[in-house]
Amino acid sequence: MSKQLIVExxxxxxxxxxxxxxxxxxxxxxxxVGLRINGFISGLLGSFLIMAxxxxxxxxxxxxxxxxxxxxxxxxxxxxxxxxxxxEIMAGVLFVLSLMIKQRFTPKLAKLIFYxxxxxxxxxxxxAVYVHLLPGVPAEVLPLQSKPPVLTLIVLGLVWLNMYLYxxxxxxxx
Length: 174
What we know:
This is DUF1440 domain-containing protein. The protein is mainly α.
């Protein structure tokens, strides 16, 4: 197992552990299971996206990400690199923000923040699926060194599940 793969797995494990701790803390509150799951997924996505965007500032991740962009021949490679990296961090911050201070926002602003984070993450993950599926992009420069976009599809599925739960809880509580 390569050093890069070990670092990736350690980062993902840390995100999951922190999210489980936060979820267990919320268990004591008198909040429905659906709302707790929605909060857990938002926290998991937020912390994962912040971590994923931030590690791309450091080697070997910065080199791998630059290689992905170059080999995928995305238009405007420098812009695509910064948009992907900062987009992940911004989406993660918005997910965490939607959790931490939602009581201070108007319902309309909270909804906008949540949907912006979800939409931004969806676009980023769809581009990532495209990059994974290109034959010219080798597995060595992809997350978890995996050619099938497994992690990307898991994140995308979590975003969509989270949106479903968010919409469902809004209809239940109106």
